Amino acid sequence: MKWLLWILLLGGAIWLLRGARVRTPAQARPGGNGDHAQTAQQAKKGSREIVPCSLCGVHLPRDEAVVGPDGRSLFCSEAHRIELQARQRRGGADT
Ligand SMILES: [Zn+2]
């Protein structure tokens, strides 16, 4: 009867590990305006494509990105989409 308990424990551990792998924590970088992250290039393309934010350049999965009004530009958040739109409206006069 002891082996049954071990099998259940092992199965549970594998199930937990799989679940943890599917949902990896988002790469929150303090000061995202640094150099480009090379690791994003190594991310598997297809199932989960990693795209950079058009404003701050932070990398995030495409399905979590906010699509801009032109349908091509992607943003990490709704706030950054609005921010870039506001900048473009001002004429991009940024020093
Ligand atoms: Zn952003």
Task: Give an account of the 3D structure.
- With 95 residues, the protein is an alpha+beta fold.
- It has a domain at 37-95: Roll (Ribosomal Protein L24e, Chain: T).
- Helices cover 40% and strands 11% of the residues.
- It is built from three helices and four strands; from the N terminus they run ααββββα.
- It has helices at 2-22, 39-42, 78-90; strands at residues 50-52, 59-61, 66-67, 74-75.
- It has a two-stranded antiparallel ribbon. A two-stranded antiparallel ribbon has the order 3-4.
- β3 and β4 (74-75) form a beta hairpin.
- The protein is rod-shaped, with a radius of gyration of 20 Å.
- The N and C termini lie far apart (73 Å).
- The model is unreliable at 41-45 (pLDDT under 50).
- It binds zinc ion.
For this entry, give a set of tags.
95 residues, Ribosomal Protein L24e, Chain: T, two-stranded antiparallel ribbon, rod-shaped, binds zinc ion
Average pLDDT works out at 79
Provide the gyration radius in Å.
Answer: 20 Å
What is the tally of beta strands? Answer: 4
Q: What amount of the residues lies in strands?
A: 5-15%
Global structural class = alpha+beta
Reported by name, the CATH topology of the domain at 37-95 is Ribosomal Protein L24e, Chain: T
Q: Give the names of the bound compounds.
A: zinc ion
Please outline the helices and strands.
Layout: H1 2-22, H2 39-42, E1 50-52, E2 59-61, E3 66-67, E4 74-75, H3 78-90
Antiparallel strand pairs: 1-2, 3-4
Residues 53, 55-56, 58, 75-77, 80 line the site of zinc ion.
